[in-house]
Design goal:
The protein has 165 residues and is of the alpha+beta class. The protein is built from four helices and eight strands; from the N terminus they run ββααβββαβαββ. A hairpin with a 4-residue loop joins strand 1 and strand 2. The longest helix is centred in the middle third of the chain and has 15 residues. Bound molecules: coenzyme A. The site of coenzyme A has 20 residues, from strand 5, helix 3 and helix 4.
């Protein structure tokens, strides 16, 4: 656990945090999931599900990541191990403090240690803050999925290569 200059800590999710994480998800994103979905992601990859907790012990943001096997976004027809950032959100009053950067960097460090080959995520082509964030961290847009979201918005798949063998 690391105490940062903004007085929050980043720590692993535990199932007692579920209600707070669901609240943030519903407040910040149109993509909402059932409680069992969050717990499935947690079981798939407990080290890739992190929360940011403020001084008064309230949770202000989360990231959740799933481990998958799939075709590389960078090398033709090569099966690779992938970390899939399924969801990330920070409560509005805690944004622009570097919390999302820190959450993603910690997940990337974990994926690198696990020798996962690539990390990827979906993002609305209209979500400029998130696209800027991912570009700043080294992700690039690798393809577009037309009409990916329920409201018809297109998604970018953004990805980055991790450890090189
Ligand atoms: N406009 C433009 N760029 C932005 C931005 C904004 N509103 N918010 C973040 N960024 C970019 C900037 O490059 C920023 O660096 P800077 O502050 O030095 O300029 C960088 O991202 C890091 O920002 P950070 O403070 O770590 O991000 P955050 O903690 O505010 O969280 C989101 C960013 C996207 C997670 C947050 O806005 C959010 O929860 N949005 C709603 C949920 C969402 O869209 N999730 C992503 C779904 S794919």
């Amino acid at each position: 656990m690391v105490l940062t200059q903004y007085n929050y800590i980043i720590r692993k999710f535990n199932p007692n945090d579920l209600e707070a994480v669901i609240y943030i998800n519903r407040t910040c994103l149109p993509e909402n999931y059932s409680p069992s979905f969050f717990l499935e992601i947690y079981q798939n990859c407990p080290d890739g599900f992190l929360v940011a907790e403020s001084e008064n012990l309230s949770i202000v943001g989360y990231i959740m990541c799933r481990l998958e096997l799939g075709f590389s976004e960078f090398k033709k027809l090569k099966l690779v191990k992938k970390g899939h950032i399924v969801s990330i959100a920070i409560l509005p009053e805690f944004r622009r403090k570097g919390i999302a950067m820190e959450l993603i960097n910690k997940v990337l460090k974990f994926l690198n240690e696990k020798k996962i080959d690539e990390c990827f995520l979906e993002v609305r082509t209209t979500n400029e803050p998130a696209i800027n964030l991912y570009k700043k961290l080294g992700f690039s847009i690798v393809r577009t999925i037309p009409g990916y979201y329920l409201d018809g918005t297109d998604a970018y798949i953004m990805a980055m290569e991790l450890h090189k063998t």
